[in-house]
Amino acid sequence: MSVYLDYKPRLLQMAKGVDMCEISTALLWLAAGGIVGAIASLGVAIALNNAFCTAPAAPGAMIAAGVASLVAVTALSLLGSEISNYYECMNAPQACAVDLTNAINAVNALKTVLGFQASACFVAAGIAWIPWAGAVPMYVILASLIIQLAVIPSLIIFLINLVSCANDATAAPTVTVLTGAALAVAAATIGLTAYVRRDLPWRWEAPRK
After folding, report:
1. Per the domain annotation, does 106 fall within a domain?
2. Domain that holds residue 63
3. Which pTM does this prediction carry?
4. Residue 187 pLDDT more than 70?
5. Which of 1, 80, 115, 190 lies most in the core, judged by the most C-beta atoms within 10 Å?
6. 80, 83, 106, 53: which is closest to 166 by C-alpha?
7. Number of Cβ atoms within 10 Å of the Cβ of 122
8. Within a domain: residue 202?
9. How many domains does the chain have?
10. For residue 202, what are the contacts with CB-CB under 8 A and spacing of at least 6?
């Protein structure tokens, strides 16, 4: 199903009886997928770091985690621009300004933290080859990424509120694919977060020899 934006004046859209103001759910999937990819890569790095013979391969997994985090940052950057464009396309209803701010703030917060985590992954790759000791920063980064993954459902709620408010503020209600697809992203994200968290240790201990 395609999702698209159109920057034509709102009155022209209403005159034609169609609406083309949309927020791409593909970017939500890409951002969530980037975070999941980073978490998976970190899991691989931790597993590799847990033995002398495999630890030298751990830096590659850490670099992969950093790249996946940057993919999520890029998707969120595009999503932030698209949210602003959507708001303007809907004639910038003042009643929805708070919803717009909430959505943009959530996107910016995710971008900032994920950017830091991407840098941390690249730095940690430098010591990831050291068995066990190199895993300490990995667990810290992993915990942060899981927290960021849990923020995705909140962002989806903000986006749904924005779209709903914008629809209510216009004379011609819009038909959007955001709600259904976004709820699917939220359900998948919540489920994955709960699954991953159950195996995350509260503290790291070096294996006993």
Report:
1. yes
2. 21-197
3. 0.72
4. no
5. 80
6. 83
7. 17
8. no
9. 1
10. none
Chain center to CA of 68: 11
Q: Are 73 and 128 in contact (CB under 8 A)?
A: no
Helical pair 97-124 and 58-89, crossing angle rounded to 10 deg: 160
Mean pLDDT of the chain: 79
Q: Is the pLDDT of residue 203 over 50?
A: no
The label of the residue with tokens 């955001």 reads 178
* Composition of the chain by helix, strand, coil, percent to 5: 75, 0, 25
pLDDT for the residue 32: 93
Q: Are 124 and 140 in contact (CB under 8 A)?
A: no
pLDDT tens digits, 73-108: 999 999 999 999 999 988 888 989 999 999 999 999
Hunting for tokens 């103001």 — which residue is that? 21
Of 21, 46, 37, the closest CA to residue 73 belongs to 37
Output the CA–CA distances (angstroms, integers) from residue 10 to 52, 54, 169, in the order listed: 63, 59, 12
Is residue 136 a part of any domain in this protein?
yes
Average pLDDT of the segment spanning 22-26: 86
Could you tell me the maximum CA-CA distance found in the chain, to the nearest angstrom? Answer: 75
SS3 letters for 12-26? HHHHHCCCCCCCCHH
